[in-house]
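Regression report. Comparing outputs from two consecutive submissions.

Submission 1:
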Amino acid sequence: MTDDARSAAPAVGRSGLTMPHAPTLEEVARRAGVSRSTASRAINGGLKVSPAAQAAVDAAIAELNYTPNRAARSLVTRRTDSVALVVPEPDERVLTDPYFAGTLQGITAALDPTDIQLVLLIARRGEEAKRTTRYLLNRHVDGAVVVSHHRDDALDQVLHDSRLPTVFVGRPWAAAGDVAFVDVDNEHGGRIATEHLIKAGCTRIATIAGPLDMAAGLDRLAGWRSALHEAGLSDEAMARGDFTSAGGAAATERLLAAYPDIDGIFAASDLMAAGALSVLARHGRSVPGDIKVVGYDDLGVATSTAPPLTTLRNPVVEMSRAAGELLLAKITGGDQEVVPRIFHAELVVRESA
């Protein structure tokens, strides 16, 4: 039997049933009239392959319905065809906060034109965080997008030192000049929110700040303070939250106890603003009659509260898609100039203010 006859002959399984034949790289090379090494290079990126040879290999792949062996391809390209979305937060927050749903939507949109798979890594604190770091440093993925980065998780410095292609959604703490990131201008957003409350007639404006070990928490707080200072108003009424509804409710209880005369609240996330609304209703404070409330994010929660929230639209989907596209460029193009991409938050006025 000739080689061509053997390659065309169907395989027979243990049960005696005829098994479909999977085309091989050698058959693709024969059909295209090129060497095996040329066929391999054409399949794995077209390096040092003439246009004519590339076209012949592409045609052979289509005719034979050839599917590359991913394991063998990885040995040639040194790629895994997967990237990680790293979220250093507890499971329950990742599964319930609409911010992370928007992040996933944006990144998957960036990866959609490719065959690259997305791996979700929930980098919990302690030993699990160390396991996540080892997984990344051992190059089980070709790159990583990090979202909701905290100062003490140290991911920015670890990934910078590893040279693994990495993009942060949100400004990282360390190595800021060398780590690629996309972000929204959170300080400007905090300022816009507070200025809106001032224009609405509020003179005693409190804030429920986000976590101060995150750049977003610090920047939104800075925006609140700068707007109050320019208006000659006090910035004393501040309580810390954690970007959750429960955290916002607890912070509001503390604010009402310490500053009962507040007439405006800027909450650094819509979830915290929703928690604030529930507490204000329980205390008999009408919104917006007694206290006006502004949130931050506009990811769905703002339209389901009572009353609907005035908020800052945080372009999470667009930012995450940009992060995914930037990561793909870093993986395929190597070292590039690191230029942060900054988006702008937009005020969306609803009934709460």
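Submission 2:
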Amino acid sequence: MSIEIKSGTLSDFFTSAKETARQIDRGETITPKHTVWMDTHDLMQLLKPERTALVKYLRQEKRVAFAELLTAMNRTPVSLNNDLNILAKYNLVKIFKETNPGHGMRKMVESGFGNETLEFRVCL
């Protein structure tokens, strides 16, 4: 199974949904689709080298503390937060806080795609 990330408009999404509905009406077997539709601008932002490196890192680590991620990626907190917010917008990462025993709370980042294949498509 893979996650397909498509760039398109709301109209493109509804066209795809209507085609699936037609297949159901015809009694065809439908395979589950794991498609994320996003704005073309966001897709182009997502494909920046820093963000793709972040996705690759999270694929290996699965779950990591924000502070560790800063060090591993050699990034500033502001730039890393910007990248994580774009990835979180499309559920590619999960950001949450957890107790850090004896030290209060810490920000954690977790992969939202697990071992799934990510396929990027731009439909213009």
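Expected: both submissions complete independently.
Actual: both completed, but the second showed a warning that disappeared on reload.
Relevant detail on submission 2: Strands lie at 2-7, 35-38, 63-65, 93-99, 105-111, 117-122.
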